[in-house]
Amino acid sequence: MTEAPLASRLRPLLSAARGPGAAVAAVRGTERAVLCHGPVGEGTRFETGSLTKTFTALLLAELTARGEVRYGDRVDRYLPFRLPGPPLTLLHLATHTSGLPRLPPGLLGRAVRSGWHSNPYAGFGEDDLLGSLCRTRLRHRPGSRVLYSNFGGGLLGHVLARAAGGTGGDYPALLAERVTGPLGLADTDCDANRPQATGHWHGRPRPALLMPGLAAAGAVRSSARDLLCVLGALLDPGTAPNPALRTALAEVQRPRLSVPRTGSRLCLIWNLRPRPGGALLHHSGGTRGFTAFAGFLPGSGTGLVALTNTAPTPLAPFIQSAYGVLRELDAGPSGKVWTARV
Questions:
Q1: Residue 94's pLDDT is what?
Q2: Range in 13-27, 281-295, 322-336 the model is least confident about
Q3: The Beta-lactamase-related domain covers which part of the protein (predicted)?
Q4: pLDDT digits over 213-238, tens only?
Q5: How does 162-180 read in b/e, with b if 16+ C-beta sit within 10 Å?
Q6: How far apart (Å, rounded) are the C-alpha atoms in residues 119 and 158?
Q7: Residue 204 pairs with which residues in a beta bridge?
Q8: Which sequence spans correspond to the domains of the chain?
Q9: Nearest-CA neighbor of 154 among 53, 77, 63?
Q10: Cα–Cα dist 265/257, whole Å
Q11: What is the separation of C-alpha 335 from the centre of its chain, rounded to a whole number of angstroms?
Q12: C-alpha distance from residue 239 to each of 36, 112, 117, 236, 249 (Å)
């Protein structure tokens, strides 16, 4: 039997995966394809690492659409203490312009003492997050520079949970209530105890990632099936089940700032690369045992998910390959931009 054209375009990407297992999935107009390699299937859960932040951004946009928060709200409006210095806002956290360092002060030292080679974030909880925030000196004035920050991503989820009337630790429950539940994502959550693929680092199996204090920055697990569903919703926000989520799916794609010297733009967490045929939005993630990529082109109705259960390697060849395949999917046989028929 002849393989479907979309599936045949994805197959080389499986070869680029270095892990024991991989799952790649794509949508292009009405076409859909999911390919798996090794002991995984389309519903196998992978750690997504920083791809988690795209879910946190969607949660921010959803709460904003309901009027529960505003992008310009000060972060400390929802904290038990006031932060010194210039105002730090929710939008700063969602665009990596907060001035916060990549990791909270004290996390690395704690991890080296307790679990650097096993689970470096496991001993860093919600109280530690707030304690680190009190000790942090911003690297630059909020809004003046882009500086990627896991600290900021984790803090954003903590603050959103508080804004919705819970505690910082209620981020997983809020995400399920507002985003993953309504979208029907049965494989997607922050639960390290549910079955998932076994991650690998330098060829060795890894324990499931634990991130109690920075869940919103990297703790989400998901499957190729669920992530393809998310991309479908981003490509067609009108299919979402309620008005707030429909608004949020569109809002996370709106460019918020230009990244100097790159030609790229930042949306809410998503990176946007302008192209002649329309914007390409993408994000990736990695943990000590997994690598993940997701990207989509709204103009052509094209999206791609790539997951493997091994840690990223230098130069990230799997992610680079996924990005390249996504660009190729946006072109027809003639090399021109492929446009979905309506």
A1: 98
A2: 322-336
A3: 9-313
A4: 999 999 999 999 999 999 999 999 99
A5: bbbeeebbbbbebbbebbb
A6: 21
A7: 201
A8: 5-329
A9: 53
A10: 6
A11: 30
A12: 27, 46, 43, 6, 10
pLDDT score for 334: 33
For 285, the token pair is: 């993630």
Provide the CB-side half-sphere exposure for 262 (13 A, CA): 12
Q: Is the pLDDT of residue 59 over 60?
A: yes
Q: Side chain identity at 307, as an amino acid letter?
A: L
Which CATH number applies to 5-329: 3.40.50.300, 3.40.710.10, 1.10.510.10, 3.30.559.10?
Answer: 3.40.710.10
User: Do 214 and 153 contact (CB within 8 A), yes or no?
Assistant: yes
Both tokens of residue 157? 């989820």
Distance (Å) of CA 261 to CA 81, 97, 102, 183, 221: 37, 16, 21, 37, 33
d(CA 198, CA 332) in angstroms, rounded, equals: 37
Whether 128 has a pLDDT exceeding 80, the answer reads: yes
Structure tokens at 3: 């393989």
> What's the mean per-residue pLDDT of the chain?
93
pLDDT-derived band at 114 (thresholds 50, 70, 90) equals: low
How far is Cα of residue 25 from the mean position of the Cα atoms in its chain? 16
Confidence at residue 332, expressed as pLDDT on a 0 to 100 scale: 52
Q: Residue 101 and residue 149: Cα distance in Å, rounded?
A: 6
In whole angstroms, what is the distance from residue 39 CA to residue 311 CA?
17
Residue 340: the pLDDT is 29
| DSSP secondary structure of 107-132 | HHHHHHHHTTTT-TTTT--HHHHHHH
Q: Running DSSP on this structure, what letter comes out for residue 292? A: E
Closest CA to 95 of 269, 246, 237, 296: 269
